[in-house]
Give the backbone structure.
Amino acid sequence: MRRVRLVSRLLALTLVGTVLSAAPAGAAPAQPSSPPGWTTVPGTTPVLSRPAATVYGGEVHLVAEGPGDSVVHNRYSLETEAWSGWRTVPGPARAASAPAVILYGGDLHLFVRGPAGTIRTSRYSLTTASWSAWSTVPGSGAVTSEPAVAVYGGYLHLFVRGSVGVLRTARYDLSTDTWSAWSTPAGLQGATSAPATAVYGGWLWVFVRGPAGNLRTVRYDLSTDTWTSWSTVPGSAGAPSGPAAQVYGGDLRLYVSDAGSGTVRTVAYTLTTGTWSGWSTATGPVDLVSAPGTTQYGGQVHLFVQGSQQQVHRSLIGSS
């Protein structure tokens, strides 16, 4: 039933996009008032995917797929409590998915699935306030999901879902400006979502939604160059969306969207006890159509979802 509702929501988003494309030039989607616990990121640029966020230069950097296969970028300052406004990342992104973004080596690194299942990348320098040209990650192809990224052990680790639901990964070494060959952790085929990543307790964690709607996880230890076996996050059967992962308050937290109820659900793993909490509702209902994106800034988790009118909603979780 949840999957039926999610499909209905996504169909509604497609219809909204069709109406917008038929509107007169310059027409913009309406900006409805936000429900309790949520604010709407201002601006009239249509947002066409799940948002992704990270912190760089003292600001939250928010990215998403935009019109014409572009990637759009916005920044939020805690000091001014204001957004910079949506701007298009220059050059031919050729985006075919939601993007991923992370800080590494002093630059903002942006990734998105491109033509023929390749991964396209660009980077932003705060020093020059400019974006690099877009390029293709070597060896990428047949990618079937948006990417996920993490910085661990001095490397930038990139994850995607490949054909038949296999998790694939490659890593970038800034010191040599080179990418490793692509590899696949043993086990688990049939992932049904994009991966999510987090670094916690000395491990690199990866999460995906499994064939039964549960959440599956695997961990990587760089010191031994080994992966654990896959395991299931307790109580996550029927997870309605792909996950987002965030370390906050000493715990590793997962978030999934339930488009049927308009809520975001969460569960937490505590390293000291080695146990998962039960699932609970993280926020009040909102008109959402995407999996969540998260970052931590100003002592709070910033939770973002795409709304059905091609906007982004944000909720703040935790103490400021």
User: Anything to note?
Assistant: The CA atoms of residues 203 and 224 lie 11 Å apart. The chain has a mean pLDDT of 90. The helical segments are 2-22. The chain has one helix and 28 strands.
